[in-house]
Amino acid sequence: MSSIIQLLPDHVANQIAAGEVVQRPASVVKELLENAVDAKATDIKLIIKDAGKSLVQVIDNGSGMSVTDARLCFERHATSKIRQAEDLFSLHTKGFRGEALASIAAIAHMEMKTKQDQEELGTHIVIEGSKFVSQEVAVLPVGTSFAVKNLFFNIPARRNFLKSDTVEFRHVMDEFQRVALAHANIHFTFYHNGSEMFNLPPSSFRQRVVGVFAGKTNEKLVPVNEETEIVAIKGFVSKPEFAKKSRGEQFFFVNDRFIKSSYLHHAVMAAYDGILKDGAQPSYFLYLSVPPNTIDINIHPTKTEIKFDDEQALYAILRASIKHSLGQFNVAPVLDFDRDANLDTPYHYKDLEGETPTIQVDGTFNPFTDDKTNKHYSNAGSSFSSGSSSGSSGSNSYSSYKKPEPTASWESLYVGLKQDTEEIGMMSFENEEVTSSLFNDDEIEQTVHKTYQIHKKYIVSPIKSGMVIVDQQRAHQRILYEQFLHNMTVNQASSQQLLFPLNLFYSSTDMEIIRELQLSLVNTGFVFESTTEEHIVISGIPINSTESEVSLVIEQLLSDLQDGIPESSFSQNDTIAKSMAKSMAVKTGTYLTEKEQDNLVNGLFACKDPNISPFQKPTFITMRVEDIDKKFAL
């Protein structure tokens, strides 16, 4: 019987390895940028086309490679970072697995140009699907250039798995930001389809964060600095008032390597306990330095997860250091029992002495004398003056006093008062007749109150067969959703103009999304006065929104679209309508007047689909009288 187990060819093994290493163009960007950093480059350029599907090129001025190393780097398990197994627990570099270049070359057209400083000529290698096409000597600058073209050209199924250019570009942007933030001493430039996206010269950590996210990032940063025997922490966290609903601007770096850690994230959130709104997420850019032998990096194919030896101590130190920074910069509330702010003296009154007011009274004035005497006293008057800060005093004449004419009979003042009081007491107040209907006119149950609000969450409306219980938040979401969807379809949205336009600042990544969705937002009622690389100016908003809700609405929209913008226009409009309806709908816990309750119920049942919210949740339930009777049955 012949054997059924056999060794796989190298090109097949490389394609299988590529499934772990290369998932999308962003994976190629990550591997090539990390190799450039490990080569001690001081200037790195990233050039992509079509979100990396057509081209990903990384050019650096690092150490370069010799002719032998240039050919050997494309072999599996070939690496210059480790020599023995013990080196895995003392890593100071990033790419050490030795599978990245071999995996990328197996699924793309790859071109490499490299030259060392001491060499006069460099090496130019072309590979297509793990096959060496050519290798020749060339005149090149010092450093290395990798150009990856036509990713997944020989695996159509994987290429069809890729998302739209917008989604893939966002992933590439994320990988670029992670490497650029971890190495502020390196000059990074980023080009997409011929346009310069970033130009980040060497700078401090704070300047690098501001350069990557632009806007008013510098205003919201609070520095964190703590050194212990276990870990050294430095970086920045955001002020609580700048917290967002999305978790986009949150970065952990351990030994200059970006990682993801829900455990450390919980420590940061614990430090903000009590000073953040529900659901808000702070931004943070934290750099942790730990001994290399206390962490295990090689537990995940992308090396974004790390196992620490003493996680509990690291948790406590991180939480305490952030809490200390927030309190030190007066971001967190502080209690001071020795100071009363009400007793503080304004600065311009600090050295002034108070003056005692003077009072002058005319002792000869008698209000009970006759009119002639009053007239005399009125003309004479009396003065009342008080000292002021300038020491001057003023006088005012009393107005003449006039005795009221005596009433012939004081009892006449009370004539008819008892009759009027009895009439008021006998008055009956009748409720208006409500003509609007919930379902059909014959089902209306005439009651004193048509609707009732329960626990500021549900609206109860009686009908002939029983009652309807409406969830006020879901109902309002359905109403707003259909309104926005109709406005975007018909392009007849109404706007209310703002007296003072709003200036809103966002990161470059968020600005890309806003510019792509600008037309759809205009159709919902927003009016954009201007749009720049860092901020937008809004001069008009939808008529059913308030000025204070604008930033929350756009922030919620960016959070909902962080996984990508739908390609079809209908899907885009549907996503925007859902997001805006969720942000602007009346929330649970909001008191509604009886008129607002009626409008909400009538508006719900005027919708095309009043049964469910835009998020497929029921908006109301009905309870028949028979169902209530069963509850009281013995």
Automatic annotation (TrEMBL):
Residues 450-592 form the MutL C-terminal dimerisation domain. SMART domains: DNA_mis_repair, MutL_C. One of its GO terms (biological process) is mismatch repair. Signal peptide: none annotated. Residues 379-405 are annotated as: Disordered. Residues 209-327 form the DNA mismatch repair protein S5 domain. GO terms for cellular component: mismatch repair complex. InterPro entries: DNA_mismatch_repair_CS, DNA_mismatch_repair_MutL, DNA_mismatch_S5_2-like, HATPase_C_sf, MutL/Mlh/PMS, MutL/Mlh/Pms-like, MutL_C, MutL_C_dimsub. The keyword DNA damage applies. Residues 379-401 have a biased composition (Low complexity). The keyword Iron-sulfur does not apply. It holds the Pfam family DNA_mis_repair. It comes from the Bacteria. One of its GO terms (molecular function) is mismatched DNA binding. Keywords: DNA damage, DNA repair, Endonuclease, Hydrolase, Nuclease. Belongs to the DNA mismatch repair MutL/HexB family. This protein is involved in the repair of mismatches in DNA. It is required for dam-dependent methyl-directed DNA mismatch repair. May act as a 'molecular matchmaker', a protein that promotes the formation of a stable complex between two or more DNA-binding proteins in an ATP-dependent manner without itself being part of a final effector complex. NCBIfam families: mutl. This is DNA mismatch repair protein MutL. It comes from Flavobacterium frigoritolerans. The lineage of its organism: Bacteria, Pseudomonadati, Bacteroidota, Flavobacteriia, Flavobacteriales. The gene is mutL.
